[in-house]
Design goal:
Structural class: mainly alpha
Oligomer: single chain
Radius of gyration: 31 Å
Largest sheet: 2 strands, antiparallel
Shape: globular
Helix content: 55-70%
Strand content: 5-15%
Strand order of the largest sheet: 1-2
Order of helices and strands: EEHHHHHHEEHHEEHHHHH
Length: 338
């Protein structure tokens, strides 16, 4: 009797004329747009300016892609530098293979550069983007479905994914670990949004919560996978990575809450129009014009002497103390001026 299952695409690429549209890349692009869109909404809600998240993402995304690929190639080097392998395949990112650990680590370096250039704190930006990153991972995991990769053990469950025969894989139905992780990431995003609203997380704690929650799910999902991987003490490398990163995220969360409680009151100092306006220029111009107006009124009042000082004083341009000194000097004898 046939069992229910999730069918896999017969191909992971669709050709639009001479242009190949790859499902894996398409899923990653959708994820980036979702992360930037949600991050921008959260950044504005915290007092930041529209567009800041996207400007910094211009730095973070390329760094993240390079970091994700480097982590994958380093930890699975036998796929590219083993016997009978072609090292050029290490650059074929469209065939799959991005390690989230490397993507987050090097992406953070790119984000740090962007934040430094904009003069804003990296932890605040990371907090705004945290649930969006989780949703981006949820979208990106469907790229594994297009490539028929990263599935789990064989199963006859109704939600099993059908895998066709191919290089290094046997036809059958398997646990759709890509689906499990995608759903888990959606749950992580919801958790971070709820916790951030409920407890007003700040100074990087929303991001730390995302990291810790993701690691919990990644640990048990990774344990189900059957793809080739390095093992340490009989446990897959990525399981160990999940454990270590989880501990570090929890330590950061606890220490941050003790050392820097509460949330940042200002995430982008020049975002408000009260004193800064756009890039702080409008506010400075207004203050300068105001000061120049006072100086001009003071000079005119001083030149007018005591006779014409009343109108200026009535307008609040100068004080009585400012007018008194020129009047006394004007009536002083010549001997006092020598």
């Amino acid at each position: 009797m046939d069992i229910a299952y999730i069918p896999s695409p017969s191909t992971g690429v669709i050709h639009l004329g001479p242009i190949p549209l790859r499902g894996y890349a398409f899923c990653i692009i959708i994820g980036v747009f979702v992360a930037v869109w949600l991050g921008n909404k959260r950044w504005i809600a915290r007092g930041g300016k529209p567009g800041t998240v996207a400007d910094i993402a211009v730095w973070a995304v390329p760094f993240g892609l390079v970091g994700g690929r480097l982590y994958h190639v380093i930890t699975d080097y036998q796929l590219y530098f083993g016997e009978g392998r072609n090292w050029v395949d290490a650059f074929k990112i469209w065939e799959g293979g991005l390690g989230i650990w490397g993507a987050i680590a090097l992406g953070a370096v790119g984000a740090w550069i962007g934040c430094r250039l904009r003069g804003i704190p990296l932890p605040a930006w990371a907090d705004a983007l945290a649930p969006g990153i989780a949703l981006a991972q949820a979208c990106g995991r469907w790229g594994n479905w297009f490539n028929q990769e990263l599935y789990g053990r064989a199963t006859d469950l109704p939600w099993a994914v059908e895998i066709s025969a191919g290089p290094n894989r046997d036809a059958g139905t398997y646990h759709p670990t890509f689906l499990y992780e995608s759903l888990w990431c959606v749950g992580v995003a919801i958790l971070v949004i709820w916790a951030d609203r409920r407890f007003k997380l700040g100074h990087g704690r929303a991001f730390a919560l995302y990291v810790a929650a993701y690691c919990v799910g990644r640990g048990w999902i990774e344990y189900m996978r059957v793809d080739e991987a390095h093992h340490i003490l009989g446990v897959r490398l990525n399981v160990w990575t999940s454990i270590v990163v989880f501990v570090l995220a929890v330590i950061y969360f606890v220490l941050s809450a003790k050392l820097r409680p509460g949330r940042e009151e200002v995430v982008e100092p020049d975002a408000s129009g009260g004193e800064g306006g756009k890039d702080g220029k409008d506010g400075k111009a207004a203050v300068g014009a105001k000061d120049n107006g006072k100086d001009k009124a003071a000079v005119e009042a001083a030149d007018a002497g005591p006779k014409d000082s009343a109108p200026a004083l009535a307008q609040g341009a100068v004080t009585a103390a400012d007018l008194r000194k020129p009047a006394v000097d004007a009536e002083a004898p010549e001997a006092d001026k020598s």
